[in-house]
Design a protein that fits this description.
By secondary structure, the protein is an alpha/beta fold. Helix content is 42%, strand content 15%. It folds into five domains: 1-83, DNA polymerase, domain 1 (Orthogonal Bundle), CATH 1.10.150; 88-155, DNA polymerase, domain 1; 158-246, Beta Polymerase, domain 2, CATH 3.30.460.10; 256-329, 2-Layer Sandwich (Beta Polymerase, domain 3); 340-576, TIM Barrel, CATH 3.20.20. The structure holds 2'-deoxyguanosine-5'-triphosphate (DGT) and calcium ion (2 copies).
């Protein structure tokens, strides 16, 4: 059971207790525990298997909750949770996944309109029934309808980091058995898509029967969907389906190309191969002689497969049939796509001064541990009240503290910055006399998401005309499962960014991945640069950087396009415009 799943169950329990009107301290205990668990760097399952007592010593997790964690890990379920869920109609609590719908509102909708599931909620919104309730109006209905359509679009798919976590655990489990010669992730996860339907794992097994038995005995299995000698599928309890295939070593490269996809990419590869007299499928590469006689060629690596077809190897992130085939045939695959090891620091980090959960020194040592050359501390400005934003006085004091704390960290340059709110009219939350005190300024939208296209675009353009602005945080404003992008003319924003040397963020926090892959590609095409940041609110979230890197790669972004690959001196020059 992953930390994600445990956290999700705890936060569901908190929701359920809150709806039932139970003691607020109990509700809070579950919520805090869920947050803490999500932020942990290590998997609780591993901690538990090594030293079970340690579970009880985790911050904010008392006796009762640690016993529940132990039950979840040991049995894959939790009786208390299952009983609690039985008190609600089927599908009732999943409405909480809709943006803008918390336990309080949900209770009201249930008590006053008898709404039990998403379909009923949708109907009630369309019939304008919510307007009869206090505190809700036409805007609530529009927002909820939007949220419902987003929820539907992503239903049954995981966010990329969640998929990565599941995959990491199961790959570890497979490798530790010693039954496999090779284990490789394929499918949409290998391509780095922002949402992933199911997991695909390709292997070479030493003994297929034993290997398949080991796979279907994965402790977290909810159901075995199929058990064969070359292919088996399981469904993880409360988790995704996992398809595992075992292939021959000499066909591994061909199989990896096939199962990595995308399907469109594969179709084109097969077509090109045929024109050259080859046949390519999941079983290998074959030369097709006269009278259709086939001879199997060696295809143990992907490189061999692409080479046979007369093209360059294509990085998995580019395999979406969006120009990579032509580029590979011409030898024009970008040679220096950004990679994780190019990143020299994270330029968007929060601390407990505003809504982060770690103190300055904790964040700095986490950065040092990751081997970063520099970071930026960028807490919120006053306009973001719910995030405990700082007014001018607090900000100036905070800057002083940042610089003081940084003295202890010799090999790490700490930039004292701020995530400054873009007000509705495009003015920034602080005047130039304050901004000039900052080493780095990130401008961001946290309110007025619904301005019309012209107003929203002008707001961005104006903010970017401020010469102190270095980075635009999460530019599109979307949240993958719950909020659509702002109505914004991104072409204009990207052009302005290029002109004023403002960098556009690829933010990996929560459900953002913003810019997404397509927008990254267009931004860079128009000459703008990007900054890949985690926006971490606790140090463990700094690990999510890799998902920003993979997204940028999907957007054909090269090292030279990324601000936080610069050397420290080049970075400083870029920030002082
Ligand atoms: P997902 O799971 O929806 O996030 O997306 P994928 O790309 O992982 O798709 P999936 O799991 O259905 O299949 C994995 C790969 O296997 C896919 O990317 C390409 C290959 N594949 C599966 N079915 C077909 C097919 O019918 N034709 C072709 N050409 N390739 C296929
Ligand atoms: Ca898949
Ligand atoms: Ca699959």
């Amino acid at each position: 059971m992953t930390n994600h799943e445990i956290a999700r169950i705890f936060s569901r329990i908190a929701d359920a207790l809150e709806i039932k009107g139970e003691n607020i301290f109990r509700v809070r205990a579950y919520r805090t525990a869920a947050q803490n668990i999500k932020a942990l760097a290590r998997q609780l399952e591993d901690v538990y298997r090594e030293t079970p007592e340690k579970i009880g010593q985790l911050q904010g997790i008392g006796k009762d909750l640690s016993a529940k964690i132990a039950e979840l890990i040991a049995t894959g379920g939790l009786e208390y949770y299952e009983d609690l869920m039985k008190e609600f109609p089927e599908g009732f609590l999943s409405m909480l996944d809709l943006a803008g719908l918390g336990p309080k509102k949900l209770k009201k909708l249930h008590d006053e309109l008898g709404i039990d599931n998403i379909a009923q909620l949708e109907k009630a919104c369309r019939e304008n029934k919510l307007e009869t309730l206090e505190g809700m109006g036409p805007k609530t209905e529009i927002k909820l309808l939007e949220a419902i359509s987003y929820y539907r679009g992503s239903e049954g798919r995981m966010l990329l980091p969640e998929a990565g976590e599941y995959a990491g655990q199961i790959v570890g489990y497979l490798l530790s058995s010693g039954l496999f010669e090779k284990v490789e992730i394929a499918g949409s996860l290998r391509r780095g898509k922002e949402t992933v339907g199911d997991l695909d794992i390709l292997t070479v097994a030493k003994n297929t029967e034993k290997a398949m038995d080991h796979f279907i005995s994965y402790p977290l299995v909810g159901a075995v969907i199929a058990r064969g000698t070359t292919k088996s599928s399981i469904k993880i309890k409360e988790g995704p389906q996992v398809d595992l295939r075992a292939v021959e070593k000499k066909a591994f490269g061909a199989a990896l190309v096939y199962f990595t996809g995308s399907q469109q990419h594969n179709i084109r590869i097969r077509h090109l191969a045929r024109k050259k007299g080859y046949k390519v499928n999941e079983y290998g590469v074959f030369s097709v002689g006269p009278r259709g006689r086939e001879r199997r060629l060696k295809a143990s690596t992907e490189e061999e497969v692409y080479k046979k077809i007369g093209m360059q190897w294509v990085p998995p992130e580019l395999r979406e049939s969006s120009g990579e085939i032509e580029a590979a045939l011409d030898g024009k695959i970008p040679s220096d796509l950004v990679k994780e090891s190019d990143i020299k620091g994270d330029l968007h980090l929060h601390t407990s001064e505003t809504d982060g959960r770690a103190g300055l020194e904790e964040v700095m040592s986490a950065a040092e541990e990751r081997g970063y050359k520099y970071i930026a501390i960028t807490d919120h400005s006053q306009n973001v009240r719910i995030a405990n934003g700082m007014d001018k006085k607090r900000l100036l004091r905070h800057l002083e503290r940042i610089r003081k704390a940084a003295e202890k960290f010799k090999g790490l340059e700490v930039l004292a910055g701020c995530e400054v709110d873009m007000l509705e009219n495009g003015k920034l939350d602080f005047g130039d006399e304050v901004l000039r005190e900052l080493d780095i300024v990130i401008a961001a939208v946290h309110s007025k998401f619904n301005l019309d296209r012209k107003k929203q675009t002008d707001r961005y353009l104006r903010a970017m005309d401020n010469r102190f602005v270095n980075i635009i945080a999460h530019p599109s404003g979307r949240l993958i499962t719950s909020r659509k992008a702002l109505d914004l003319d991104l072409e204009k924003v990207f052009r302005k960014a290029a002109e004023n040397r403002v960098f556009l963020e690829v933010n990996t926090h929560g459900q953002r991945i913003d810019l997404n892959d397509v927008n990254c590609r267009r931004a860079v095409e128009l000459g703008a640069g990007v900054a890949i940041n985690t926006d971490a609110h606790e140090p463990a979230q700094m690990d999510l950087l890799k998902y920003g890197v993979i997204t940028a790669r999907r957007g054909w972004v090269e090292k030279k396009d990324v601000l936080n690959t610069y050397s420290l001196s080049k970075l400083k020059k870029a920030l002082k415009k």
